[in-house]
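Fold it.
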Amino acid sequence: MRLVTTLRGLVPVMMVAASVWGVPASAAAGGHGGGGGGGHGHGDELAHHHAHDGGHDRRQDDRRHGDHRHGEGGGEGGGGGGGNQPDVACGDVAALISAITDANNAGSGSITLASNCVYSLTGPAVSPGTNGPDGLPVITGNVTLSGSDTTITRASGTAFRIAEVAPGGTLDLYGITISNGSATTGPAGLNGGGILDAGTLRLTSSAVTGNTASNLGGGIEVANNASLTLNSSQVKGNTGGDGGGVHINTGGSLTALGSQISDNTANGSGGGISNFGNVTLTSVELRGNRAINFEGGAITTNGGDFTMNSVIIDGNSSGSHGGGIANFGSQLLMQSAVLTNNTAGGNGGGLYNASGTAQLIGDQVTGNTAGGGQGGGIFVAGGTVTLTGTTVSGNIPNNCVPGLPGC
């Protein structure tokens, strides 16, 4: 049994209902976030690009998001229509790569992609790359990609992730699905199967699905001091070593609103989320995630603050402890959350608390199972767990071990 893991460093084409998002903030200034250490014995640190063409005064056309955020232009972009015309014709990967390069060189740029369209990447644009090959140019400026039912996917037997954001870079995605990325080359394994984020990454009405990383962050890796925001988006069906959906490294952050992290798989720990930074989830669903060999079917968290408001954690599983959540030292706060139908191979079907603090306020912990141990609802191996107005019932083989006030 392994209680604490070492430090290491979210479908088919689908869309969540569009939500209004403000004009993207300007690019974060020159952060130098170092990469995380390897998981399960991998000690390599991420190295990051710092190429940032700051000497250009020219700017690309800064279109209003209202003109093209969910543009309705045709896939091939016929004549007329002004703001409804895509900047990159459907399927024109060379033009997409060129447009991103131009935006990087200009310092910023907004690029409208064709609606209901697939852009199939047949080889890496960056190879071998400091952090492994990438299908698109590394984002060093403030770049926005907008579409509607628009997918960027790897269509090749060659392994490469889809996108990488360098320290100081910002990538905003609106109505975009990132799929089938593969960060699996190299003897020590790679991070971020879909997207490697070492800067600022924001997804609105977008999806990261069906990507694979041999090391950390099957869907998305958030490197040291980087930030990820999910708004009405999905991280689904990804696979990684730790953090099948998302891995957040030391100093990194995840903020998610109205989103889903589901059906992801970690061969190690944290089927949905593996966290070493700070996380805030509001109205988020974590369903059907798996940690095959270790802890935290939906979530494993190892430090920092982890706050959940009106979150549903349902039907997740772990090979070891914490079918829903495994806490190894975070300040965990759950308010109006539902923790149900999760299964642990060891202790703590719903919640396994090894260290740190866990406050449950107005929550429901029901119908969870510790298949190979005790504390079907909650198992406290260390740290402190407090219950306020929380229902813990119907868990197998028992509700709380040891007994807790209010349980």
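The chain is about 5% helix and 35% strand.
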